[in-house]
What does this fold into?
Amino acid sequence: MRLATAICLLSFLPAFANKVPDSAWQTGTLKDVTQEERSSISGVMNNGQGALHGSDYSVPHYIIETDSYIYEIVHTRGHARKKARMPVTVNGPIKFAIINSDFYLQDEQGQEYKMVVVKKTLKTPPAAQK
It folds into this structure.
C-alpha cells in the first residue's frame, strides 16, 4: 500500500515542478497581440508516389511593456489552435515571470503558458532622449 501511495505521489511531481513561484510574477502591460499565419507540408514522395499533407496555422505574438523593457513573445505551442489563443486584454495589465531563460505568461483566469522571447528591447530612459 505504501509503495502504491509513493508511486501515485511521485507521478504528480512534474506538474508541481513546473509551477511558477508567486514571488517570480511581475506585472506589465499587454500592448498588442498579432497572429502570424504559417503553413506546413508533410508527407513522403518516392518517384512521384506518396502523399503530401498541408496545414495552416497561426502563431500568436504578444508585445508586453514594462518599466525597463519591451518583450515580443510567442506561444511555444502556437500551432495548437486550442491552446494558441489566451483570454487577455490589449492595453490591460498582464502577469509574467522569467525563470532562467523561460518566459511564462498568465491569462485573465490565472492559467500559465510557457512562451518564447523573440525580442527584448531596452527602453531608452527619458533623460537620454534629446
In short: The radius of gyration is 20 Å. DSSP finds three helices and six strands in the chain.
